Every structure is written in structure tokens, then in C-alpha cells.
Amino acid sequence: MSLPVRVTRETETQIREIDSWWRENRLAVPDLFLSELTQSFDLIAGAPQIGRLYRKSPVRNARRLLFKRTRYHVYVTMPDEVRVLAVWHAQRGVGPPLRA
What we know:
Blueprint: E1 5-7, H1 9-25, H2 32-46, E2 52-53, E3 63-66, E4 72-77, E5 82-89
Parallel strand pairs: 1-5
Antiparallel strand pairs: 2-3, 3-4, 4-5
């Protein structure tokens, strides 16, 4: 069973900003961020329980999945659909401010 993947407005903004930064600063692999993001959305749609439970979240049952090469996490929640709550770099030291 595959669930639809929905992105919040805040997450849309994060994705645009990250992609813009990536294209300006990673000239050797300008499409890598969007490629990993697309792959993660496909993976999450087909297997929504993938990733680790993010216990520090105020959002119940939030999970996160790490992009191997770019080192970003995608934070999601579900059950009826996969809602992407944030895309956040793993080395920021703290997680994103998640809201339901």
C-alpha cells in the first residue's frame, strides 16, 4: 500500500532554500539534494514506517529518515497520509521546531 506524501508550506520553503543553497555551493553535484529528496519521498510513500521514531518531537509518532549523501533528515508523520514536517540538516545540533 502506498500513501500520498504531502508537504507543509513551511517545509516547501525549507526545500526551496536548501535546493537553492545546494545548487549555488555544490557545483559538482547540483541535483544531489533534490535527487535524495525525491528518492526519500518515494521510499516513505511505499514504506511509511521507515526511518527512526523521533522521540524529541512534540508531534506524536514523528519519524525521521537520513539522506546518506547530503546528510539531511526528512521528518514525517502519518497515518492517513505521509505529511512532511521538515527537512533539516543532521549537523545543526538540534532538531527542527515541529508542529502538527
